[in-house]
Design a protein that fits this description.
By secondary structure, this protein is an all-alpha fold. The protein has helices spanning 12-37, 44-57, 60-89, 97-115, 121-147, 157-171, 177-182, 189-216, 221-247. Helix 1 (12-37) packs parallel to helix 8 and helix 4 (97-115) packs across helix 9.
């Protein structure tokens, strides 16, 4: 089952299972990030607004900090695109696993930075913001490419909007028979279910992450990293095994 999550031949079920798991991870990491730096890094709408506000108010340092976070998020998404396309051109099984393993490593780095945040705050605070923003861009691009933009996992604005649209269709009363023959309003219950699931798992991840980071500190990033590593490891190991067989064809 776990191998299907990163398999190059995608199914809708695998996309949604991976999307749900990553939504939980994003919610937990976002909550941990808020406890560490008192801001959320999973959505860029607020960041872009902050950049504009700070530039108008003359807070150039804060405006530059917001721009750096925006660039880090963009760089994370671009990194996923590079890794996926690089692996795809070489017919590797780890087409999506590279980005997941990189995210696992960066989550450990986030835990390390957060744990030492008070020692050199002028260095570790900006670094933590950049690492978290990069992680969020990296992860959001993974699911976006896998699901062909059907699923997002790090920000819920689009999810809640689509959820509201489907709920509106669900409660709509198709009264006029003439109009029904031309345009019958029907909710996509499958779409409604996946958006509700993603939203619920992001919220559950936020609760679990906030509780874990509050109780044990930044060690809480380790289980998240291990989860991502477990998802990515089978595909990566399969590619390593095949590379070794090609490099040493005489060995069993």
């Amino acid at each position: 089952m776990i191998q299907s999550l990163t398999h190059t031949v995608r199914t809708r079920r695998a996309n949604r299972q991976l999307g749900g798991l990553l939504a939980f991870v994003a919610g937990a990491a976002n909550a941990g990030g808020f406890l560490a730096i008192h801001r959320y890094t999973s959505h860029m709408t607020g960041i872009v607004s902050e950049i504009a506000d700070n530039l108008v108010l003359g807070n150039l340092y804060l405006g530059a900090a917001g721009l750096a976070a925006l660039c880090a998020f963009t760089a994370g998404a671009a990194t996923t695109a590079v890794l996926v396309n690089w692996a795809r051109r070489r017919n590797l099984h780890s087409e999506y696993a590279f980005s997941l393993m990189l995210e696992a490593v960066l989550l450990l780095l986030f835990g390390l930075l957060g744990a030492n945040l008070n020692s050199l705050i002028d260095i570790f605070l900006p670094a933590t913001v950049l690492v978290l923003s990069f992680i969020m861009g990296l992860q959001n691009a993974i699911v976006t490419k896998i699901s062909k933009a059907e699923i997002r996992t790090t920000h819920m604005t689009g999810i809640v909007t689509d959820l509201g649209i489907e709920l509106g269709r669900l409660v709509y009363w198709n009264r006029a028979r003439e109009a029904n023959a031309v345009y019958f309003v029907r909710a996509d219950r499958d779409r409604l279910g996946i958006h509700a699931t993603i939203l619920g798992l992001f919220f559950a991840g936020g609760l679990a992450g906030a509780l874990a980071f509050k109780q044990v500190g930044f060690v809480a990033s380790v289980p998240l990293a291990l989860l991502l590593s477990a998802i990515a490891a089978p595909a990566l190991w399969q590619d390593i095994t095949e590379w070794l067989q090609r490099s040493h064809p005489g060995r069993p």
